[in-house]
Amino acid sequence: MILKVNNLKKHYGDVKAVDGISFSVKKGEIFGILGPNGAGKTTTLECIEGLQHHDEGDIEIFEKKMTVNDDFFKERMGIQLQESSLPPRMKVWEALDLFSSFYNKNVDWRELLVKLQLEDKKNNYFSSLSGGQKQRVFVALAMVNDPEVLFLDEITTGLDPMARRQMWNVMKTIKYAGKTVVMSTHYMEEAEYLCDRVMIIDKGKVIADGTPGELIDRMGMKNRVIIESEEKIDVEIFKTIKSVLDISVEKGKIEIEGKDTSVLADIARIINDRKIKANIQYKTANLEDVYLHLTDHFNEEVI
Ligand SMILES: Nc1ncnc2c1ncn2[C@@H]1O[C@H](COP(=O)(O)OP(=O)(O)O)[C@@H](O)[C@H]1O
Ligand SMILES: [Mg+2]
After folding, report:
1. Which CATH class, in words, describes the domain spanning 3-217?
2. What is the pLDDT of residues 18-41, one digit of tens each?
């Protein structure tokens, strides 16, 4: 384990921003911290990064107890903050050159620019970059000291889908280079695609953790079949199928939940036998279903 956090607590007055969080991160993995706004993601990250004093609990990183403002840790970690900015008239290469001067150990920032697809932006002013390019500059700045662990706080928030996917590629490249990444995100699709393990937090507490696959399995809603048809289908015809757990109808769509994948074949057979013209879709649960279920965020938004 490259990072171990045990019973971390950080309060701001009455607000329990982080209220007893424990987790650990293995070397070389991408670990995701997920949760709604105000859940405590940034505070957790800032405590681990040594930017904030925590009130209680232990943080051990690189097998050493974390202490705030210690060069031992600063030299070995890369940090991108949720709210970052650079002077608008600073050129990309100037920023990299400046940040490199803060550390004893450096990588050649020209190589970083190539890796982060920013080579042709070297002489651009920071203010002239797109959102995605700016975020990639912040990743580059976090990597000038060739860190072992990289912390990224909502690095893709606000980016368009193309820029987001470009960032995902960058992060995969970072992982393949053997780095450990601890990231926070709002996007479940992103977490599912990138993260080896995730922890969902809400109101300063961990509400679930594991690999995305484990969390989805635990939800036990793996097999869903959606049937759409212009014909009126009597849902009674599906009740004979043994593996059916639940049938619901919403906005003309029939949704059937089955115990296993056999439910799909059984439904298809019934529809085929009766010569019903229908569109059948098979869906598995994803991390977003898990997240919405656990955080109740969905309900809040509907109300
Ligand atoms: N500097 C601060 N002073 C007071 N309260 C804060 C401060 N920073 C964060 N908080 C509060 O702590 C909680 C967790 O915030 P934060 O860690 O930023 O959550 P997230 O990053 O998950 O959105 C929120 O209720 C937030 O309002
Ligand atoms: Mg935050």
Report:
1. alpha beta
2. 999 999 999 999 999 999 999 999
